[in-house]
Specification:
about 280 residues, alpha+beta, four-stranded antiparallel sheet, DNA-binding
DNA sequence: CAAACTACCTGACTGC
DNA sequence: TGCAGTCAGGTAGTTT
């Protein structure tokens, strides 16, 4: 499932394939893939534009175009980008962008594949610098412009479980279920602990853990469990071999050997060590 | 206003 | 073999 490290791996790949290329044709093969369009704009109008750069805010990507507009992309649960020669097909192909041939490239197709259709792309008029549609997404913990003291203060004013805060993309972005569980384990924190009950030092420790697990996953090319996450060349990352708790139910905690437990959380799952991560007396999830 | 809840979606897997 | 049920989960919109 793509979280910040996986999206960053994809961004790096997209930059290499797309920078300087001109989009000559646009084909939408599934309506859900472009379901969010600003009124008065048409996704097809990006044909003719040149991609100057590929940028990221949290789990959102956008292509900065020479027109000053942007194309926003979100991988959702299962989105992938692939670059292939013209004329092929794939059962999960949702959007096909044709890249014009130029002095150093043959005509190429940029594919957006998405089995579960939670992802998609949208045009953002005037959005090259930062699309207004994703202005509500906070900076991530790797961002040099992040106001870390302000984020810590925000977290410590929230009367809600700390895992929910980690997953709130408006506070700090890029964290999903996998890295939330991994960071909480590293910081020896139970996700139900109330954010406004944590010391400043503990919050700092947790955010350091998020940053560390992000960096390690990025170095490993991201986390892949199945075919749902691959880079733009179709290759899997291997950070899943380094996961301490996520998906490790009943296996020993790498720190103390206690069996890892899987518990229900927001209609999904949390994975934790019941000994290293003590539950609060009154649980609020 | 903050927090909680729900719909959206496909395919792999489980149990009968 | 088939079929119903479960699970995976990020985001936006709605409800509390």
């Amino acid at each position: 499932m793509p979280e910040l490290p996986e999206v960053e791996v994809v961004r790096l790949g997209l930059t290499g394939y797309l920078s300087g290329r001109r989009i000559s044709a646009v084909e939408v093969l599934h309506p859900r893939a472009t379901r969010r369009q600003p009124v008065g704009s048409d996704f097809g109008q990006l044909a003719g534009a040149r991609v100057d750069d590929v940028r990221r805010r949290g789990k959102y990507l956008w292509f900065a175009l020479d027109t000053g507009d942007a194309v926003i992309a979100h991988l959702g649960m299962s989105g992938q980008f692939r670059f292939v020669p013209p004329g092929e097909h794939h059962p999960h192909l949702r959007i096909r962008l044709t890249l014009a041939a130029d002095a150093t490239h043959a005509e190429t197709e940029c594919w957006f594949l998405d089995q579960r259709t939670f992802g998609g792309m949208q045009l953002s008029p005037g959005g090259a610098a930062l699309p207004a549609e994703i202005n509500h997404i906070g900076r991530d913990l790797m961002d040099p412009l992040l106001d870390l003291p302000a984020v810590i203060t925000t977290i410590r004013h929230k009367h809600v479980g700390i895992k929910r805060v980690l997953l709130d993309q408006t506070v700090t972005s890029g964290v999903g279920n996998i890295y939330a569980d991994e960071a909480l384990w590293r910081a020896r924190l139970h996700g139900d602990r109330l954010a406004d009950g944590l010391s400043r030092a503990k919050v700092v420790e947790l955010l350091d853990a998020v940053r560390a697990v992000f960096a390690e996953a990025l170095a490993g090319g991201g986390t892949s469990f199945d075919e749902q996450y691959v880079n733009v060349n179709g290759e899997s990352g291997y950070f899943d071999r380094s996961l301490a708790v996520y998906g490790q139910a009943d296996r020993p905690c790498p720190r103390c050997g206690t069996p890892v437990r899987r518990v229900a959380f927001m209609n999904r799952s949390s994975h934790l060590c019941p000994r290293c991560q003590r539950a609060p007396q009154v649980g609020i999830r």
